[in-house]
From TrEMBL:
Keywords, ordered alphabetically: Amino-acid biosynthesis, Histidine biosynthesis, Hydrolase
Domain PHP: 5-220
Name of the protein in question: Histidinol-phosphatase
Pathway: Amino-acid biosynthesis; L-histidine biosynthesis; L-histidine from 5-phospho-alpha-D-ribose 1-diphosphate: step 8/9
GO MF term list: histidinol-phosphatase activity
Signal sequence annotation: none
Source organism (scientific name): Canariomyces notabilis
Protein family per UniProt: Belongs to the PHP hydrolase family. HisK subfamily.
Catalytic EC class: hydrolase
Enzyme Commission number, as recorded: 3.1.3.15
GO biological process, one term: L-histidine biosynthetic process
InterPro entries membership: Histidinol_P_phosphatase_HisJ (IPR010140), PHP_dom (IPR004013), Pol/histidinol_Pase-like (IPR016195)
Gene3D superfamilies referenced in this protein's UniProt entry, alphabetically: Metal-dependent hydrolases
Lineage: Eukaryota, Fungi, Dikarya, Ascomycota, Pezizomycotina
Length: 310
């Protein structure tokens, strides 16, 4: 039973992703997905948090559109959930932000309380308030804002992530080690070279394991040129040693990226001696009431067999 727990559309992330949400769902059905987690980016709250494509023609108008667009997303997701219920199990969520905890913690909680929302992905895309996965120049700004070295950036990233994890306890932890994407050496052995960073990694993993969260095997790292999915092997090995659970995510931003590199991702997990990944099943509780969620394991063999990739 193939699935993703992390996906985006151009309809509700314009300029950042492509394609209409319904068309993406139809493609997911075609290639064998049985469950699909919809997780459009949550609204941001300040002009300084806008991305370059959002600055024109009017930053103020772009910011003002974010919350109404989120409401429209929830309504459309619920419609599609009903329409395609016989073909695919749709989970409705969003991807969180943690740019400034005082601003974003209450907003994430408020958005997560909506009766249509099943879960959210706990992610960091910023460190010291600066995007870390946008481009090399912006990544360099994040390095400077964190104290002037990549090691200090990594330490700050995992410290900020720890704050998010402790405060919000997301069921799904998004691209755990995203900070390495634009690093000079994305495959750097953290345990060996940066023990202070490694201590923070282990601390964060222990926290996630303690409250029952899942790491996603996020294959977007592969399409972005990294050698391994998120999280990298030494982190994934530590997580397996702890008995932690993985879910599976393509982090797609349009039809062309649905299930991209999934076979490589499954091979990666098998190489870690992982036998299963985890998703959620909704059990309806009544109109206007949040659905009950049941954790469901899927063997890698079953997952692989259900994919219909050309």
């Amino acid at each position: 039973m193939a699935f993703t727990m992390h996906s985006h559309s151009g309809q509700f992330c314009p300029g950042h992703a492509k394609d209409q949400l319904e068309d993406i769902i139809l493609h997911a059905i075609k290639i064998g997905y049985k469950t699909m987690g919809l997780t459009e980016h949550m609204p941001r709250t300040d002009l300084r948090d806008l991305y370059p494509e959002e600055l024109l023609p009017s930053p103020t108008a772009s910011l003002a559109a974010l919350m109404p667009r989120h409401d429209a997303y929830l309504a459309e997701a619920a419609r599609l959930q009903r329409k395609y219920a016989a073909q695919i199990h749709i989970l409705i969520g969003f991807e969180g932000e943690w740019i400034r905890p005082a601003d974003y913690a209450p907003l994430v909680r408020s958005l997560a309380a909506h009766p249509a929302v099943d879960y959210f992905v706990g992610s960091l895309h910023h460190t010291a308030g600066v995007p870390i996965d946008l481009d090399a120049a912006t990544y360099a700004r994040a390095v400077e804002a964190s104290g002037g070295s990549e090691q200090l950036l990594f330490e700050r990233y995992f410290d900020e992530q720890h704050g998010m994890l402790a405060e919000l306890r997301p069921r799904v932890v998004g691209h755990f080690d995203l900070v390495r994407l634009l690093s000079e050496r994305p495959g750097r052995p953290l345990k060996e070279e940066w023990p202070g960073v490694w201590e923070r990694v282990v601390r964060n993993l222990e926290l996630i394991r303690g409250y029952g969260g899942w790491l996603e095997c996020n294959t977007s790292a592969l399409r972005k040129g990294l050698d391994e999915a998120y999280p990298k092997r030494e982190i994934a090995e530590e997580w397996v040693k702890m008995g932690g659970k993985f879910t599976m995510s393509d982090d797609s931003h349009g039809i062309a990226q649905v299930a991209t590199n999934y076979l490589r991702g499954l091979d990666y997990l098998e190489g870690l001696s992982v036998k299963e990944v985890w998703t959620l099943e909704r059990r309806l509780a009544g109109e206007g009431v949040k659905a009950d969620l049941v954790e469901k394991s899927v063997s890698l063999d079953e997952f692989r067999a259900s994919l219909r990739l050309e």
